[in-house]
Amino acid sequence: MRNQVNRESELRSLLEELNLDGMAAICTDLALKAAKENLSHEAYLFELAKHEKEQRDARRTARLLRQSGLPAGKTFLTFEARHVSPALQLQLERLKRGAFLEAAVNVIAIGKPGVGKSHALAAVAHELILAGHPVLWSSTAALVQRLLAAKRDLHLPQELAKLDKFACVILDDIGYVQHDRDEMEVLFTFLAERYERKSVMITTNLVFSEWNHIFKNPMTTLAAIDRVLHHSVILDMMDVESYRAKEASHHHLREIEEGQKVLKTSSAEEESATVIRSTGKNY
């Protein structure tokens, strides 16, 4: 019995030394289960290896989510797909599989404010992480400032190399940023560096004919659009109704309805009081 206990302890120590912490955590309990159910050695080892992989996958997913900067709660579980067309729903279903990453295809979600562009791309990015792909979410303004700081410190190539480790970088709200020359140059450099190598996903409220507001220079604008669109999937959400405007409208209607109820109640109470006064008798 003592030898068996020592062997179990030594097995745990060996597994921990080999960085097989998942196996080490359950090897003893699983050994008892294997003996009780008369499992073969291969079956016991299979269960150990499966548990180790599940633990590693869970830790990797948690780490990738922390590193991604994705907005919390923006997944397909909370995305209201009924508000978008069936064609757009099909596009999102295909993007969830992540095949576009292998071909370095870009994804551009175009639509008015409040239609769910950011939510849609964040949901796709979340699925990519679950599949084991490293992604980075950033507002365009924040990424531009990050690159600009690196350029000033003469570390732009090193910063671009760090970003190159991400299978996909999501630039949120590219249309809201009005860049000066230096900012425009680092943004263009970033897009050019990833061209045909790594994917970029972009949300914008500007159609491509308005991207001159971003890059200022006509030639740079054309070059940027060419690199983004050459291999790309366009999520056209321009006809989608703004959910924020819809919520505001519903809230306003509810306030009106509640106000009308209050007025009706007050009016009824006043009429009742008038009737009581007019029919009242003194005894």
Structure explained in plain terms:
The chain has 283 residues and is α/β, with parallel strands linked by helices. It folds into 2 domains: 2-68, no CATH class; 81-236, P-loop containing nucleotide triphosphate hydrolases (Rossmann fold), CATH 3.40.50.300. Helix content is 63%, strand content 9%. The protein is built from 12 helices and 5 strands. The protein has helices spanning 2-17, 21-37, 41-68, 86-96, 99-102, 117-130, 140-152, 156-163, 181-194, 212-215, 218-229, 243-279; strands at residues 106-110, 135-139, 168-172, 199-204, 232-236. A 5-stranded parallel beta sheet has the order 2-3-4-1-5. β3 (168-172), α9 (181-194) and β4 form a beta-alpha-beta unit. α1 (2-17) packs antiparallel against α2 (21-37) and α7 (140-152) packs across α9. The chain starts with a helix and ends with a helix.
